[in-house]
């Protein structure tokens, strides 16, 4: 009978250890997320597309969009909205001037929806591994 209790306790200890390891692994992935300011010092603007060169993004990384909210905004769009420079119904619009957006795996598309801005190049497509 004592052996039965010992094996149950051993299974509980193994389960607790597995949960602790899972928490450590999840925390480790979060700790590796990077924060990028779009456009660096220049912020979110008409020439932000070149800012992407040489950077590698991962799901969970954070983009910070800094801009004057009276002059610009940030709209998360799909590929069609990116190509057509139009925000589909229900698109998330950011307008604080200091927006933080966490990247999802795959390509994340952003435009400025102020008239003519996207067409003038104020858009980026960020692919996160």
UniProtKB/TrEMBL annotation:
A single GO molecular function term of this UniProt record: metal ion binding
Domain Phytocyanin, chain residue ranges per copy: 34-129
CDD domains tied to this protein: Plantacyanin (cd11013)
The entry's keywords: Copper, Disulfide bond, Metal-binding, Signal
Alphabetical list of InterPro entries matching this protein: BlueCu_1_BS (IPR028871), Cupredoxin (IPR008972), Phytocyanin-like (IPR039391), Phytocyanin_dom (IPR003245), Plantacyanin (IPR041844)
SUPFAM superfamilies the record matches: Cupredoxins
Gene Ontology cellular component terms for the protein in this record: plasma membrane
Superkingdom of origin organism: Eukaryota
Signal peptide: 1-31
Native source species: Oryza barthii
Protein name (record): Plantacyanin
């Amino acid at each position: 009978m004592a052996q039965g209790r010992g094996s149950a306790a051993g299974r509980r200890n193994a389960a607790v250890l597995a949960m602790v390891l899972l928490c450590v692994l999840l925390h480790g992935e979060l700790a590796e997320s990077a924060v990028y300011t779009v456009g660096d010092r220049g912020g979110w603007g008409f020439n932000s597309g070149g800012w992407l060169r040489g950077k590698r993004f991962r799901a969970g990384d954070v983009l910070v969009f800094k801009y004057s909210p009276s002059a610009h905004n940030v709209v998360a769009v799909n590929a069609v909205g990116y190509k057509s420079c139009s925000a589909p119904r229900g698109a998330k619009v950011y307008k604080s001037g200091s927006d933080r957006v966490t990247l999802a795996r795959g390509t994340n598309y952003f435009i400025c929806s102020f008239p003519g801005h996207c067409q003038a190049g104020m858009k980026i497509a960020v692919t996160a591994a």
